[in-house]
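Hello K.,

You asked for the raw outputs rather than the summary table, so here they are, unedited. I folded two proteins back to back in the same session to keep the settings identical. This is the first:
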Amino acid sequence: MSVKEKSIKRIVAIRRKPDMTRKEFLIHHFQVHGKISDSPKYIQIHLLDGAFGGRPDALNANQPWFGRDDITELYYSDWAHLKSVFTSEHVKTQVGPDALNFSDMEAQLPMMACEKSLPLRTGRRNYENGQIPTEGKRVVAML
């Protein structure tokens, strides 16, 4: 599915459960949860642990004020499609319950967005006609 002008994007920043190693989290999220995803376009973006390592007193190398292990993007063609996926038996009995096996549910940061293509402004204002030159369109904003 290509990104369409009116497609809906669900973005979730995920932190692993405190008792999981990074390796355990990545294996489960990618190999187990990724296989049962019910989205036509599903992207996992795995983040690196902090550049300076974790605090010695922390259960998780990622800190609670932002630290996340993964950002997942799921795309839906419209609101009816999103609703049908989230109310399906597969999501209720497989996908949703499996999240409890790897995700610190209280630390999730879920967001919804609609991507919109906007002109890419690449030059200085042309003062003769007041126009800003553009070079095609790129997705540069999520509304």
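The second followed immediately with the same parameters:
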Amino acid sequence: MFTIDPRFRLASVESFDVNSAITSSILQFGDVFSITAESNALAVQQQTANFTEFEKDPFEMMPYYKKKPTHAPVYPVILKRVNLNPTIQVRRVTFNGISTSGVSVVGSVHSATMMSRVRQIRQFDQYPQTAPPLHRKEN
């Protein structure tokens, strides 16, 4: 038999409906100390099919993925709680989708870090001379 740490609670969820969960998404039931979700994506759109093999990892070649993000300052919070009921009870949760590095938690999280980086590159044989207008002028 195992024992449950009294600082953390279990979650009792009657219905949890998610249409789609994308890369590095997290579904967490109950309390957790820390969550980290990170996703790097490289999307290359080409006019013609030209598949090449990279000699190196493409994420290592691009400085975009090497930059460390700056965060807002974190101020300490003193939290005192008493869990009168060791179970979190939820009737229904419905999501259309949980995106890249997204988190759905039924419970509490002490520390959470999420980061998603997407770099999109478009390669065309010929670029258009002028871009079409976005809005027509009314006379």
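The chain is about 5% helix and 45% strand.

Happy to rerun anything if the numbers look odd on your end.

Regards,
P.
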